[in-house]
Protein backbone atom coordinates (compact mmCIF):
# COMPACT_ATOMS: atom_id res chain seq x y z
CA UNK A 1 0.00 0.00 0.00
CA UNK A 2 1.62 3.23 -1.17
CA UNK A 3 1.95 6.08 1.33
CA UNK A 4 1.08 9.43 -0.27
CA UNK A 5 1.55 12.97 1.04
CA UNK A 6 -1.01 15.42 -0.37
CA UNK A 7 -0.05 19.09 0.01
CA UNK A 8 -2.99 21.39 -0.80
CA UNK A 9 -4.56 24.24 1.16
CA UNK A 10 -8.06 23.53 -0.22
CA UNK A 11 -9.56 21.57 2.68
CA UNK A 12 -12.69 20.51 0.80
CA UNK A 13 -10.76 19.29 -2.23
CA UNK A 14 -8.21 17.55 -0.03
CA UNK A 15 -10.93 15.68 1.84
CA UNK A 16 -12.50 14.55 -1.43
CA UNK A 17 -9.17 13.38 -2.85
CA UNK A 18 -8.25 11.57 0.37
CA UNK A 19 -11.56 9.70 0.34
CA UNK A 20 -11.10 8.67 -3.28
CA UNK A 21 -7.44 7.68 -2.97
CA UNK A 22 -8.19 5.75 0.22
CA UNK A 23 -10.78 3.78 -1.73
CA UNK A 24 -8.12 3.07 -4.36
CA UNK A 25 -5.83 1.50 -1.77
CA UNK A 26 -3.54 4.42 -0.94
CA UNK A 27 -2.70 5.71 2.52
CA UNK A 28 -2.82 9.51 2.42
CA UNK A 29 -1.59 12.21 4.81
CA UNK A 30 -2.41 15.88 4.20
CA UNK A 31 -0.44 19.10 4.61
CA UNK A 32 -2.26 22.42 4.15
CA UNK A 33 0.74 24.72 3.74
CA UNK A 34 4.24 24.60 2.30
CA UNK A 35 6.11 24.54 5.58
CA UNK A 36 4.07 21.60 6.83
CA UNK A 37 4.62 19.80 3.52
CA UNK A 38 8.40 20.13 3.81
CA UNK A 39 8.39 19.07 7.45
CA UNK A 40 6.21 16.03 6.82
CA UNK A 41 8.12 15.01 3.68
CA UNK A 42 11.38 15.06 5.64
CA UNK A 43 9.98 13.18 8.63
CA UNK A 44 7.67 10.68 6.94
CA UNK A 45 8.27 7.56 4.89
CA UNK A 46 6.35 8.58 1.79
CA UNK A 47 6.32 7.01 -1.66
CA UNK A 48 5.12 10.13 -3.47
CA UNK A 49 4.18 13.77 -2.90
CA UNK A 50 1.18 15.37 -4.61
CA UNK A 51 2.06 19.06 -4.44
CA UNK A 52 -0.18 22.04 -5.22
CA UNK A 53 1.51 25.15 -6.58
CA UNK A 54 -0.54 27.74 -4.69
CA UNK A 55 -0.16 27.28 -0.92
CA UNK A 56 0.34 29.60 2.06
CA UNK A 57 3.63 30.11 3.89
CA UNK A 58 5.67 28.50 1.08
CA UNK A 59 4.37 27.86 -2.41
CA UNK A 60 4.80 24.61 -4.27
CA UNK A 61 7.79 25.82 -6.25
CA UNK A 62 9.67 26.75 -3.08
CA UNK A 63 8.79 23.40 -1.53
CA UNK A 64 9.95 21.49 -4.60
CA UNK A 65 13.18 23.47 -4.91
CA UNK A 66 14.14 22.80 -1.28
CA UNK A 67 13.00 19.19 -1.43
CA UNK A 68 15.11 18.48 -4.51
CA UNK A 69 18.19 19.80 -2.73
CA UNK A 70 18.06 16.76 -0.46
CA UNK A 71 15.57 14.22 -1.80
CA UNK A 72 14.46 12.49 -5.00
CA UNK A 73 11.00 11.71 -3.61
CA UNK A 74 8.66 11.45 -6.64
CA UNK A 75 6.53 14.58 -6.99
CA UNK A 76 3.31 15.12 -8.94
CA UNK A 77 2.53 18.84 -9.24
CA UNK A 78 -1.01 20.22 -9.27
CA UNK A 79 -1.11 23.37 -11.40
CA UNK A 80 -3.82 25.89 -12.25
CA UNK A 81 -5.69 25.02 -15.42
CA UNK A 82 -4.38 27.01 -18.37
CA UNK A 83 -1.23 28.12 -16.52
CA UNK A 84 1.32 26.40 -18.77
CA UNK A 85 4.15 28.33 -17.16
CA UNK A 86 3.40 26.63 -13.83
CA UNK A 87 3.80 23.17 -15.32
CA UNK A 88 7.00 24.17 -17.11
CA UNK A 89 8.54 25.65 -13.96
CA UNK A 90 7.52 22.59 -11.94
CA UNK A 91 9.17 20.23 -14.43
CA UNK A 92 12.30 22.40 -14.57
CA UNK A 93 12.56 22.20 -10.78
CA UNK A 94 12.36 18.40 -10.84
CA UNK A 95 8.71 17.39 -10.70
CA UNK A 96 8.05 13.93 -12.16
CA UNK A 97 4.75 14.92 -13.73
CA UNK A 98 1.96 17.47 -13.43
CA UNK A 99 -1.83 17.61 -13.57
CA UNK A 100 -4.04 20.67 -14.05
CA UNK A 101 -6.67 21.55 -11.43
CA UNK A 102 -9.50 20.91 -11.01
CA UNK A 103 -8.48 17.32 -11.68
CA UNK A 104 -10.45 14.13 -12.05
CA UNK A 105 -9.60 11.91 -9.03
CA UNK A 106 -9.50 8.87 -11.31
CA UNK A 107 -6.88 10.56 -13.52
CA UNK A 108 -4.90 11.59 -10.45
CA UNK A 109 -4.87 7.98 -9.18
CA UNK A 110 -3.76 6.77 -12.61
CA UNK A 111 -0.90 9.31 -12.73
CA UNK A 112 0.20 8.31 -9.23
CA UNK A 113 0.23 4.62 -10.18
CA UNK A 114 2.20 5.36 -13.36
CA UNK A 115 4.91 7.13 -11.38
CA UNK A 116 5.04 4.44 -8.71
CA UNK A 117 5.31 1.69 -11.34
CA UNK A 118 8.38 3.40 -12.76
CA UNK A 119 9.96 3.69 -9.34
CA UNK A 120 9.16 0.17 -8.16
CA UNK A 121 9.67 -1.94 -11.28
CA UNK A 122 13.21 -2.88 -12.39
CA UNK A 123 13.90 -1.16 -15.68
CA UNK A 124 15.74 -4.14 -17.09
CA UNK A 125 14.37 -7.63 -17.49
CA UNK A 126 16.50 -10.60 -16.70
CA UNK A 127 16.34 -14.20 -15.58
CA UNK A 128 14.18 -14.86 -12.50
CA UNK A 129 16.14 -14.01 -9.38
CA UNK A 130 19.01 -12.50 -11.35
CA UNK A 131 20.18 -8.96 -10.72
CA UNK A 132 19.59 -6.70 -13.75
CA UNK A 133 22.75 -6.04 -15.70
CA UNK A 134 23.96 -2.43 -15.84
CA UNK A 135 23.54 -0.66 -19.16
CA UNK A 136 26.64 1.27 -20.25
CA UNK A 137 27.07 3.70 -23.13
CA UNK A 138 30.42 5.51 -23.22
CA UNK A 139 30.86 7.17 -19.79
CA UNK A 140 27.24 6.65 -18.67
CA UNK A 141 26.04 3.63 -16.72
CA UNK A 142 22.46 3.00 -15.57
CA UNK A 143 21.54 0.37 -13.01
CA UNK A 144 17.98 -0.86 -13.48
CA UNK A 145 17.69 -2.61 -10.10
CA UNK A 146 18.55 0.47 -8.05
CA UNK A 147 17.33 2.95 -10.70
CA UNK A 148 20.55 4.89 -10.37
CA UNK A 149 22.99 6.27 -12.91
CA UNK A 150 26.61 7.39 -13.00
CA UNK A 151 28.62 9.58 -15.36
CA UNK A 152 32.33 8.85 -15.37
CA UNK A 153 31.82 6.97 -12.10
CA UNK A 154 30.13 9.92 -10.36
CA UNK A 155 26.48 9.50 -9.31
CA UNK A 156 23.78 11.51 -11.10
CA UNK A 157 20.85 12.97 -9.17
CA UNK A 158 17.95 12.00 -11.43
CA UNK A 159 14.24 11.99 -10.73
CA UNK A 160 12.34 8.78 -11.47
CA UNK A 161 11.06 10.20 -14.74
CA UNK A 162 14.48 11.46 -15.83
CA UNK A 163 15.92 8.01 -15.14
CA UNK A 164 13.21 6.36 -17.24
CA UNK A 165 13.85 8.76 -20.13
CA UNK A 166 17.61 8.22 -19.97
CA UNK A 167 17.28 4.44 -19.70
CA UNK A 168 15.01 4.30 -22.75
CA UNK A 169 17.35 6.49 -24.80
CA UNK A 170 20.46 4.52 -23.82
CA UNK A 171 18.82 1.24 -24.75
CA UNK A 172 18.36 2.59 -28.27
CA UNK A 173 21.59 4.59 -28.39
CA UNK A 174 22.34 5.57 -31.96
CA UNK A 175 18.69 5.20 -32.97
CA UNK A 176 15.80 7.66 -32.89
CA UNK A 177 13.22 6.98 -30.17
CA UNK A 178 9.78 8.38 -31.17
CA UNK A 179 8.34 10.88 -28.69
CA UNK A 180 5.14 8.93 -28.19
CA UNK A 181 7.02 5.72 -27.39
CA UNK A 182 9.33 7.59 -25.04
CA UNK A 183 6.40 9.26 -23.28
CA UNK A 184 4.56 5.98 -22.80
CA UNK A 185 7.71 4.42 -21.33
CA UNK A 186 8.80 7.35 -19.15
CA UNK A 187 5.49 9.01 -18.26
CA UNK A 188 3.13 6.07 -18.58
CA UNK A 189 0.83 7.99 -20.93
CA UNK A 190 0.46 9.36 -24.42
CA UNK A 191 1.45 12.95 -25.07
CA UNK A 192 -1.27 15.49 -25.68
CA UNK A 193 -1.00 17.84 -28.63
CA UNK A 194 0.44 20.73 -26.61
CA UNK A 195 2.06 18.66 -23.84
CA UNK A 196 5.67 19.79 -23.35
CA UNK A 197 6.41 17.62 -20.33
CA UNK A 198 8.68 15.18 -22.18
CA UNK A 199 10.62 18.06 -23.75
CA UNK A 200 11.21 19.55 -20.31
CA UNK A 201 12.49 16.25 -18.89
CA UNK A 202 14.88 15.89 -21.83
CA UNK A 203 16.04 19.48 -21.33
CA UNK A 204 16.74 18.75 -17.66
CA UNK A 205 18.66 15.61 -18.60
CA UNK A 206 20.82 17.55 -21.06
CA UNK A 207 21.65 20.04 -18.32
CA UNK A 208 22.54 17.34 -15.80
CA UNK A 209 24.52 15.17 -18.22
CA UNK A 210 26.48 17.94 -19.92
CA UNK A 211 28.41 17.24 -23.14
CA UNK A 212 29.95 13.87 -23.92
CA UNK A 213 33.69 13.35 -23.21
CA UNK A 214 34.45 14.17 -26.86
CA UNK A 215 32.37 17.36 -26.69
CA UNK A 216 29.42 16.15 -28.75
CA UNK A 217 25.82 16.73 -27.79
CA UNK A 218 24.53 13.64 -25.98
CA UNK A 219 20.82 13.90 -26.82
CA UNK A 220 19.79 15.17 -30.23
CA UNK A 221 16.31 16.29 -31.23
CA UNK A 222 15.06 14.80 -34.47
CA UNK A 223 12.40 17.34 -35.39
CA UNK A 224 8.95 15.87 -35.86
CA UNK A 225 10.08 12.40 -34.76
CA UNK A 226 11.75 12.12 -31.38
CA UNK A 227 15.13 11.99 -29.66
CA UNK A 228 18.41 10.21 -30.29
CA UNK A 229 21.20 9.46 -27.81
CA UNK A 230 24.50 9.72 -29.67
CA UNK A 231 27.36 7.32 -29.04
CA UNK A 232 31.02 7.30 -29.96
Word description of this protein:
The protein has about 230 residues and is an alpha/beta fold. The protein has 2 domains: about 5-120, Response regulator (Rossmann fold); about 135-230, Arc Repressor Mutant, subunit A (Orthogonal Bundle). Helix content is about 40%, strand content about 20%. The protein contains 8 helices and 12 strands. It has a 5-stranded parallel beta sheet, with helices on both faces. Helix 3 links the parallel strand 3 and strand 4. Helix 4 (about 85-90) runs parallel beside helix 8. About 35% of the residues are buried. Mean pLDDT is about 85; it is low at about 125-130.
Compose a concise summary of this entry.
By secondary structure, the protein is α/β, with parallel strands linked by helices. 39% of the residues lie in helices and 22% in strands. It has 8 helices and 12 strands.
